[in-house]
Design a protein that fits this description.
mainly alpha, transmembrane, single chain, membrane, elongated, transmembrane helix
Length: 132
């Protein structure tokens, strides 16, 4: 499968918007349940950094071809979050999160899938740009 430049730009926009979704899940940083279940990564500060990463993705959506190494950084960042989610699932129960807060449960159910998906996307874009 080959993505066009327009599709890749849209992918960067979608990645950014998905990161902005933490504002909904965290109820604008007032949802204490998210931080309770992963205080090191998903504190309000951590969630704010996720929003900043999202701004970064959107910022390069039209100029991604000129920042190939930054795309690799994006891919590695998503890999790290994806791994964090995987190990979090091993040690935690989604039902415990859902029992405290539905939005927090939904967040923990989907954030890793999102990160793995965009990790693959960023690695794909990096490899495509690197070859050129």
């Amino acid at each position: 499968m080959t993505l066009t430049s327009k599709q890749i730009s849209l992918g960067f926009l979608l990645a950014g918007l998905m990161n902005f979704s933490v504002l909904v899940f965290s109820k604008l940083f007032t949802n204490t349940t998210i931080a309770k279940f992963d205080p090191d990564v998903m504190s309000n500060f951590g969630l704010l950094m996720i929003v900043l990463w999202g701004i970064g993705y959107i910022a390069v959506s039209k100029s991604y071809a000129s920042v190939k190494w930054l795309i690799l950084v994006f891919a590695l960042e998503k890999l790290i979050y994806g791994l964090n989610w995987f190990f979090w699932l091993i040690d935690n129960s989604l039902s415990d999160v859902f029992s405290e807060d539905t939005l927090a449960g939904m967040f923990y159910s989907v954030y890793g899938v999102n990160d793995w998906m965009f990790c693959l996307f960023f690695f794909y874009v990096f490899s495509k740009v690197f070859k050129n």
